Amino acid sequence: MSSSTDTDQAKKLARAERDWQSMQRICHDFFHGWRRTVQDRYGAEVAKELEMSFYQRIGEGTGKMFLDRGGKPDELEKLVRSLVRASEVMGEEAHLTREGDDVLLVHTACPWMDSFRATGAANQCQASCDHWFQTTAKTISPKIRVVTESALPAGDASCTRRFSLAL
Predict the structure, then answer these.
(1) Which of 2, 53, 96, 97 sits at 20 to 30 Å (Cα–Cα) from 84?
(2) Could you give the angle at the alpha carbon of 20 between the alpha carbons of 156 and 34, nearest 5°?
(3) What b-and-e string marks burial along 95-109, b requiring 16 or more CB atoms within 10 Å of the CB?
(4) CA 57, 166, 73 angle in degrees (round to 5)?
(5) Is residue 9 exposed (0-12), middle (13-18) or buried (19+ Cβ within 10 Å)?
(6) Cα–Cα nearest to 163, from 89, 109, 82, 92
(7) What residue ranges define each of the domains in the chain, with the CATH number in brackets?
(8) What whole-number distance in Å separates Cα of residue 163 and Cα of residue 134?
(9) What is the 8-class DSSP label of residue 157?
């Protein structure tokens, strides 16, 4: 490849990265605009109820997609690996670790913390994520358990969720 072609390719990749980061911010703005509109019109309690309903649907879709793409109900590592990838796509920093038969999903940084804070709802993101992961797991199999062991909004160093199979 010529130097000119390499430079053009690098510029295209940089632009694609900027565009993707912009799309992430737009999605956050869209979500928070919806949440604030509901809260202003119907109150905080209804807004939280609808937010949980929103994450219920997202979790059901995530679980169904996992199964539709060939995931099996007992493949915890494959499930958590797909959740790590989804997290990375959303601009989060995440990885998985294994502890015996359990698989941990560990988030060390999350832009949702900043967007919730910027919209006056600091540290209110955990319930939404917890509901998403719980619903995803339940949609895949009633045997999958998810326990939140630490949370960034609580001041912990990570959001850590333990995925295990009930015996």
Answers:
(1) 53
(2) 70
(3) ebeeeeeebbbbbee
(4) 50
(5) exposed
(6) 82
(7) 48-165 (3.30.1380.20)
(8) 10
(9) S
Name the 3-class secondary structure at 111. Answer: helix
Instruction: Report mean pLDDT in 10-residue bins for the chain, 167 residues.
Output: 82 90 91 94 95 96 97 96 94 96 97 89 90 97 97 96 94
Indicate the angle between helix axes 126-140 and 76-89, nearest 10 degrees. Answer: 140
Tokens representing 25? 């911010």
Task: Determine the Cα–Cα distance for residues 55 and 155; give it in Å rounded to an integer.
Answer: 23
pTM: predicted TM-score of the whole model, two decimal places: 0.88
**Residue length of the chain:** 167
State the pLDDT at residue 120: 86
